[in-house]
Amino acid sequence: MELSHIEHIGIAVKSLDDAIPYYENVLGLKCYAVEEVKDQKVKTAFFKIGQTKLELLESTDPEGAVGKFIEKRGEGVHHIAFATSTGVQNALNDAEEKGVKLIDKQPRKGAEGLNIAFLHPKSTFGVLTELCEDPNK
Ligand code: CMX
What we know:
Layout (H helix, E strand, L loop, with lengths): L2 E11 L2 H11 L4 E7 L4 E8 L2 E8 L5 H9 L2 E9 L3 H10 L10 E2 L5 E5 L9 E5 L4
Parallel strand pairs: 1-4, 5-8
Antiparallel strand pairs: 1-5, 2-3, 3-4, 6-7, 7-8
This protein binds carboxymethyldethia coenzyme *A.
């Protein structure tokens, strides 16, 4: 597969309202969007730093991926998302061929209208890995 850059880093937090002021007042970043992704059972807040975004993730359901993550591991880095310039489906096919366990067999819609898919952290040395592409680019 071909990756162009780190699209975003996902960070699980208990509360967006509590965490956003740290990113704004201490790190000096600006939260430019808050969006609920119902499908993923999260509310997200976005910051941009260079080409890369930070995506804060607040769980909206204790049984969702982020709810379970915080319950088990506490707040912290949840996933890394790589932008691919050659298509998420192609990247998934390539990863599967190379023996990586997929969470998603096909891309689905994520925050900001991106096509996204996840590789399983048990196959990626403990890092939940997201592949994404902007269908409008
Ligand atoms: N990073 C690394 N390891 C993780 C992890 C993460 N984010 N989330 C779970 N794990 C580990 C757990 O610690 C656990 O390890 P052990 O068996 O050693 O304890 C193992 O994976 C299984 O975890 P689990 O709590 O039993 O959870 P599930 O198997 O039900 O789900 C996962 C784990 C990764 C398959 C699920 O979280 C998933 O499908 N994630 C992809 C979707 C997602 O994360 N959505 C939220 C963000 C969406 C967005 O960015 O918009």
